[in-house]
Amino acid sequence: xxxxxxxxxxxxxxxxxxxxxxxxxxxxxxxxxxxxxxxxxxxxxxxxxxxxxxxxxxxxxxxxxxxxxxxxxxxxxxxxxxxxxxxxxxxxxxxxxxxxxxxxxxxxxxxxxxxxxxxxxxxxxxxxxxxxxxxxxxxxxxxxxxxxxxxxxxxxxxxxxxxxxxxxxxxxxxxxxxxxxxxxxxxxxxxxxxxxxxxxxxxxxxxxxxxxxxxxxxxxxxxxxxxxxxxxxxxxxxxxxxxxxxxxxxxxxxxxxxxxxxxxxxxxxxxxxxxxxxxxxxxxxxxxxxxxxxx
Amino acid sequence: xxxxxxxxxxxxxxxxxxxxxxxxxxxxxxxxxxxxxxxxxxxxxxxxxxxxxxxxxxxxxxxxxxxxxxxxxxxxxxxxxxxxxxxxxxxxxxxxxxxxxxxxxxxxxxxxxxxxxxxxxxxxxxxxxxxxxxxxxxxxxxxxxxxxxxxxxxxxxxxxxxxxxxxxxxxxxxxxxxxxxxxxxxxxxxxxxxxxxxxxxxxxxxxxxxxxxxxxxxxxxxxxxxxxxxxxxxxxxxxxxxxxxxxxxxxxxxxxxxxxxxxxxxxxxxxxxxxxxxxxxxxxxxxxxxxxxxxxxxxxxxxxxxxxxxxxxxxxxxxxxxxxxxxxxxxxxxxxxxxxxxxxxxxxxxxxxxxxxxxxxxxxxxxxxxxxxxxxxxxxxxxxxxxxxxxx
Lengths: 295, 392
Ligand SMILES: Cc1ncc(C[n+]2csc(CCOP(=O)(O)OP(=O)(O)O)c2C)c(N)n1
Ligand code: SF4
Known about the structure:
The structure holds two protein chains of two kinds. Chain A is α/β, with parallel strands linked by helices. Helices cover 36% and strands 14% of the residues of chain A. In chain B, the strands form three sheets. Chain B has a seven-stranded mixed sheet, with helices on both faces. In chain B, strands 9-11-10-13-14 form a five-stranded mixed sheet, sandwiched between helices. Chain B has helices spanning 18-28, 44-55, 66-78, 89-105, 134-137, 153-170, 180-184, 194-200, 259-270, 273-276, 295-310, 328-336, 352-356, 377-390, and strands at 12-17, 33-36, 59-62, 83-87, 109-115, 146-148, 173-179, 186-191, 279-282, 289-294, 315-320, 322-324, 340-345, 365-369. Chain B folds into three domains: 4-200, 3-Layer(aba) Sandwich (Rossmann fold); 217-274, no CATH class; 279-390, Rossmann fold, CATH 3.40.50.
């Protein structure tokens, strides 16, 4: 975060898009604090690309960030964008206040599985229920990365974590199903191994009026990969191995229909799950306001 | 989208419930966002604002819990709204983390705390000034808040306007501490004309270019100076807006640099205590027994002083209109010439601890605790008599 961080003068920006990032502008160098092999770097690069390609007005699309490893993406989002870092889990609530205070805005909420489905679950449910015009990017790395690999609500059964003795036996929470049940009107899931799909979904979400939820399955090499093995009993301690695992466990929703519940237990069903127009909270509230002002 | 024609109440005398007077004070102060969660005894505040805010062009929302309520308020304030919530003790506890965040990010916001009995669920319709410490000390970290303690419906109106002004000026969480009795009292309130009200209000400064000294507290001479709050969606917004200790540019600092920003966060209030603190003195000039009180209790104490004077007892009242920041210097000078101090409080004696820090060691101090009800004047008078007898 701080400009004092060691810089590597010969390091080249990985992608022209990162030239936009504030971290780069601040230090004259382009770095991220993510571990090697982490999926967040990919996500932020794609996010920047969409932000630029869609010519989003930074004043209209504030980026509201929860607390987790992705908070460090603060320096990687386009430098001109306006970002507010909130408390752990509270981004949807803060975004609600922002949207109602300035209905011209459309908050983009960056949150994690722990942030959004654990501590902030209630705010997430009610954001979806209200169908408040906003985009939620839910980064699912199946673990609490920031705090060092503790079990998350999304950790698959049978995994090993720092705070479970033996294999995880708790049921895992499906962010997509929760968003659907709560009433979000655009719901999709993809993985960092599907970058074009992610960009496609994000562009759609930005244009969609209502709550859009995109869950992105992303590798946490350091705390999920290192502690778990793939089907070949290999420890997944590199980005490549974990990405392969994610790909192997991602099933498109049309194929998922053919699989049994037991087969789906350790899978991530990807695709679009809902896209429909329903009354949006702030637009409805504007009507209430108009009537009250005239009456 | 402001609709000024409906923002202000008709001028003149109205009979208002305390909670409604507080809500109207907020409207007069320019409230544009309310986010809340129902809790006895504060519910009349949202029930009034639900229709008052939209007709004036503001927004009202009932959130899913108090955590959400205060975060929506913080979000709205960041987006340029004058924002508040209303709650009671258990809600204030839930808000602690965000209040600490608002202090760190210097987000102006107002919390109306209609206090009720505790701990736990307590007796929900009974008053108890038990949030006087919670409001300042509940959140993590070292920071300061401003807290007003009104004692009448008129003051609920007037001081709520002041609270909004203080929140804007000092960019910190600001409380209006009411209670279950005061909130439900019905009293005449004199509403000023819209023109008079507008003169009182400190508006949010919306700058059309980046403020070079965005987060700076110090001017070139080293005086504490608080720039206007940055507004999301305008050019005056820092590159990062984060609840970490930050330097003047808003960029987070390291462990070895954190002392200064954290100190300034506290000093911007403590060094301005003479400007912020509001107190009232009643018959103090020759007083031998000094009563120190705040909130509804202070109202009883005016009567107690009159009764004592009739008996020839030289009693006087020092009333704290704001309880935080605590005016240590003023209290020191008030008690300096006294023979005894009496501190009646609607709790077991919380602020008495602060008074104790101001008095000479040998000076006797009598607490008059009361919970879940208001003091009878006789209860306090008896202690005044006792104090005078023991220390003639
Ligand atoms: C109130 C509160 N409790 C706990 C924490 C500690 N904490 C910080 S990040 C985090 C987990 C984040 O998990 P997730 O959102 O999944 O993000 P990840 O780090 O895995 O990307 C926790 C528990 C905190 N910051 N605040
Ligand atoms: S701990 Fe995991 S999620 Fe966090 S940066 Fe490292 S790999 Fe990424």
